[in-house]
Amino acid sequence: MDLNIRQVEAFKATMEAGSVTAAARRLNVSQPSVTKHLRRLEEHLAVALFDRVGNRLQPTAAAQSFFDQIERTYLGLDHLSRYADDLKNDRHGEIVMAAMPLIAHSWLPDITATFLSDNPNVSMSMPVRSSRWIMEWVAAGRVEFGIGLSSGSDNGVSKDLLMSVPLVCVYPAAHAFQGLPVVDSMHLDRQTLISLSNFDHWRLAVETALDDRSIRPGRRIETFTTYSACELVSRGVGIAIVDVLTALKYEGPTLQWAPFRPTSTFEIFLMRPRYWRAPTLTQDLIDSIRNHAEATDEKLRSLCPGG
Questions:
Q1: CA distances from 136 to 131, 156, 199 (A)
Q2: CA 277/CA 271 separation, integer angstroms
Q3: pTM of the prediction?
Q4: pLDDT, mean of residues 138-152
């Protein structure tokens, strides 16, 4: 004959509460009802669970052993209940997103770290790739969403503007630019310019600014990321035009920055497969990213008015 769940609940409540009276209050039943369930449980198990000492019940060794097993079972049930709740609220699984290096290395980690801390059962995959790669993988449905610059054909991709990021000039500490409220393109004449070889929009904006005034840098050094450009600047190699997010990360004793004129910004988009409905969990992360982007956009406008 199987165990009666009411008898087990009465036993568990008595062990936890310390008395039949307290167990009855916890279960919202009468004291005689708890006593009856305990007696029938002992009959079913054919073992004494309590020694009667006056008006009190003293758990036996068998009772303690049985209670230990019940606790393990209830812990498992609690875990199962939480798991079912997570499934209902779509809090389980893996999120697959992609991000361009600029965002993935400095801005996004705080957001994803908080999200993963709030959702400990969630796994995440986040390849860091070029904007063109991200666009292609979003269109193919190989990532749930991506963050990057608008690049190539947007067939099959829905794009939402996250924020507009101004370009600024970073220069070594104690450089001649120190104290300038704005670095104009004319200031770049005969300067060593560290440029980025993988951002077409970036290069075009800077090249146009220089060509419009027939400005010729002294020499050029090409690198792939804004981070390597700032590392070179901080070592006194030259100056660079980078995004303000990277400039803020590197600002310190060896590197300073100022707004760059003529003003140029680039737009960062959140890209999703068109006609795709994000699961609740993924949508929660997207909403958090959008909220942070809105706050960042406002901050950048205050730092670089007109940018």
A1: 9, 9, 17
A2: 13
A3: 0.64
A4: 85
